[in-house]
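Checklist before submission:
- one chain only
- standard amino acids only
- sequence pasted in full

Submission:
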Amino acid sequence: MNDKILQAIEVARKDFKELKKSGENNFFKSKAGEPHRFSTLDDIANSCKEALDQQQVSISYICEYNEGLNFLRTILTHIPSGQYLSSTSVIGNQNSRPQEVGSGITYFRRYHIQAMLNLEADFEDDGNQASGNNTNEVYSNPKRNNASNYNSR
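Returned file contents:
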């Protein structure tokens, strides 16, 4: 049963601050040539951590390796009840370079928490380095891009 964790998240959501977009992805540009802006992990933490703390909800991340695959698991835990929600994604295999795994960790930390907290989703493919393709698309007509070129402020 997940009623307590779900209720705590809903109460916390009422106190989330504005979700800023301080990251820039220079591989996706507007028609005017401006880089695509997205919410960084810091932006997400600044928006919701205080409200989650008030409701005693913690966020944790675990990297695991099993049967040749690297996984990232994101866990939201309601501390008083012990109830939790989790999301797990493959972030590489036994042949993945550390930089590829690291890129996958960053990408899924951000996207897991955005999905689990029902935050505004960004069109973004900064996990593109992990998948190995290298294109430069305009996001007004988005396609999957697979080369990382973004900055956080």
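Reviewer check: Residues 98-116 form the longest helix (19 residues).
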